[in-house]
Give the backbone structure.
Amino acid sequence: MTAAGKLEVLTVGRVGVDLYPEQPGPLADVRTFAKSLGGTATNVAVGAARLGRRSAVLTKVGDDGFGAFVRTALAGFGVDPAYVGTSADLHTPVVFCELNPPEDPPLLFYRDPIAPDLTLTSADVPWDVVVDVPLLWVTGTGVSVEPARGTQLEMLSRRGRPASGRHTVLDHDWRPMFWPSPEHARAEYEAMLEHVDVVVGNRAEAEVAVGTADPVEAARRLLDRGVELAMIKKGGEGVLVATEAGMTTVAPHRVEVVCGLGAGDAFGAALAHGLLAGWDPVDIAEHANAAGAIVASRLACADAMPTLAELDRLVARSAEETAR
């Protein structure tokens, strides 16, 4: 078990079991599926561990075989499962993925009547860890319903906007099926922006959070709210990196996409690693883009997370190709 004083990354929120088709085509025609650990917060913790960081995830599972699988899988990936609670009356979520189109595969969530990770209460929170951990990672999904909403906002309030060397990251993680409307979501995103120093999301997510899909304007609005680093993903155009010192776009790494699911989580894990390492924001974005590209070229999320050596190789190769 990871000692609280040594923990580097604590992610909060979604966990589940991803079921990937082993045949192409619509779900109705798929005969067999492969099981993998999944969920945004969980994948980021796994990706951070793969990059050498001591990580844990604060979440809950059901009292079932899939819940046992989650704990065993986390430990196998080097993620501390100590903060994985149990909701006795709920089932561990299952997510089916349809690999068409591969760049943005449709997902079928089984999280009714409510997912265990959305039942987090104050009693489930390791408050000393939340306050002291060098990097806390939260998501928009985590404030989609009560009681998780109030719990996550209390965590952010108690932690406060971090001082130098520590970070609180908000991953927009916009999933429309979890919300009554974008307007309802925006109010909750606004509340979280008071407490975080890093924000990451794509153009659609930025529009929900701050009212504009224009990357530059979205970044400006985030910086005006006190965010120190905003990363707005622009798909095939790369990622906008914005700080008070200026804005720049970092080009993507070109790969043949097998499954885009999990690429954003790999990006997040590399972002967390780079922040803790004290890298320049552009260097962080280059490695985060590499992480996303590598996972997009593989079939899985947690199992596909890259090592630091793989990121370094892809970044170096891309730099050589650009220099030619």
Notes: The two ends are 48 Å apart (CA to CA). The chain has one domain: 9-319. Residues 281-296 form the longest helix (16 residues). Residues 1-5 have pLDDT under 50 and may be disordered.
